[in-house]
Structures are given as structure tokens and as C-alpha cells.
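Preliminary data (for renewal application), magnesium ion complex.
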Amino acid sequence: MPCTTPAQVNTERGIPLAERTNIVLVGPMGAGKSTVGRHLAARLQMPFVDSDRELESRTGVDIPTIFEYEGEEGFRRREAAVLEDLCARCGIVLATGGGAVMRPENREQLQRCGLVVYLRTPVTLQLKRTARDRNRPLLQTEDPRARLEALLEVRDPLYREVAHLIVDTDREHLRSTVRLIARQYRNECAGNRPGTQPGKGRAPGARNNQKRKAARSGHRGA
Ligand SMILES: Nc1ncnc2c1ncn2[C@@H]1O[C@H](COP(=O)(O)OP(=O)(O)OP(=O)(O)O)[C@@H](O)[C@H]1O
Ligand SMILES: O=C(O)C1=C[C@@H](O)[C@@H](O)[C@H](O)C1
Ligand SMILES: [Mg+2]
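Predicted structure:
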């Protein structure tokens, strides 16, 4: 099967990893989902889509404005609708927003639509990378460190739950993170895209959550 069609995404549970064609990046603010995603897409010659930017272009306003008028709940509703549409696409690199894993229906969609990579990042590094940016409403607080810690405590188990692969971004340079994910994707999934060949061997440094989970639960797949 060359591509997971939207109908199958909506109806089939347990699509094997080898039949997924998207790459989905999850992780906290400042993990580098947008940055890694853009480079990864260029390297693999795949379209890059950032769900935060997609949401902004659909609404015509920026994320802080959505939070201001509709609150976080309104933002999450819109985010879920965008993710549902994007998960129906085929052969894209998708950078999600940091809170995309909060809704169970999002987690299910993301897990089924691609190779999900958790870019794990310590709070200190998140703080450094987001320090000058005013575009993240959840960080416009007196104590951004405490906010990031609280968010990570809730979300880390959810990122882990949804991920097929976990990459520590503090140990890898941007370029090696990109190379590592690209290699893993070629190994696991790229045979599904026309004109691509599965690669050889596992990328060093990659932690394959899928296989660890499979080893525990005795099955492979979603
Ligand atoms: N691996 C990296 N090495 C060095 N700098 C990085 C790396 N990844 C991201 N950055 C820098 O950190 C900042 C935040 O990265 P980015 O916007 O990609 O994070 P994000 O995960 O998409 O965050 P959000 O969830 O808020 O969208 C950017 O300025 C980017 O240049
Ligand atoms: O971590 C979060 O909840 C968010 C992260 C950003 O990517 C945006 O999606 C928004 O600022 C919310
Ligand atoms: Mg981003």
C-alpha cells in the first residue's frame, strides 16, 4: 500500500508503522519541532506543514489573538480541527503545537497518521530558546520556568504515549537530529513513498518507542 488514505486513517485501527507516510513532530515549546521539521522536510523533499502556522493562516490572526478572544479552550478546538485535516494528508512533515497531545482524539489521530517523533528537551533549554519570543501566550507569565515545568509534568507522559521514537535534542545538534530522524523514517516508512527505498540499519541514538512498547505488549503497530 503506497499511502494511508484519509478513509483508512479514519476507520482503521492499528495501521502498521511501515504503512505510514507522514512524519509528526511532538514535544514542548522550544523543543525545535518547527525548526527540525523545516530542515527534515527539505532533506527528505517532503512538504512541511506547521499546525500553528496553518491555524494562523486559516483564522487570519496570530495565536496570542486567538487566546485573547477565545481562551485556551477555543484555541484547542481550532487546533484539533486543523490536526484532523492535516492527519488526513499523505507524505508530509508535520510540526505540531506543544499542546497538541492534550486531547485524546488528537493523540489517536497523530499516532495513526505517521511516524511520531518526540523531541525531548529539558526545561532550561526550552527557556533559553523561547526567552525572546512573545508569540507563546502560555509563557507570558511572571515565572515561565515554573510554567514550563508544570506543563512538562503533565505532558511528558502524553508525548511518550504517542511517540514511536524519542530523540533527546540537548544531546544532538540540529543537523544530527535531522539526519537521525530522516534515517529512521527511511528505515521504517519511506518504502511507502513512490521513488524511495527503505534504508539499511537503525539510526544510532534513536530510541524506538514502538519497538520498546511492542516488546512489552507483545505486538507491533499502532
Ligand atoms: N536543535 C536546535 N539547536 C539550536 N537551536 C534550536 C534547535 N531547535 C530549535 N532551536 C531554536 O529554538 C527556537 C524555538 O524553536 P522552535 O520554534 O522550532 O520550537 P517549537 O518546538 O516549534 O516550539 P512551539 O511548540 O512553541 O511551536 C528557535 O529560535 C530555533 O532557532
Ligand atoms: O505548548 C502549548 O500549549 C503551545 C505551544 C505552541 O506551539 C502553540 O501551539 C501555542 O502557543 C500553545
Ligand atoms: Mg513550532
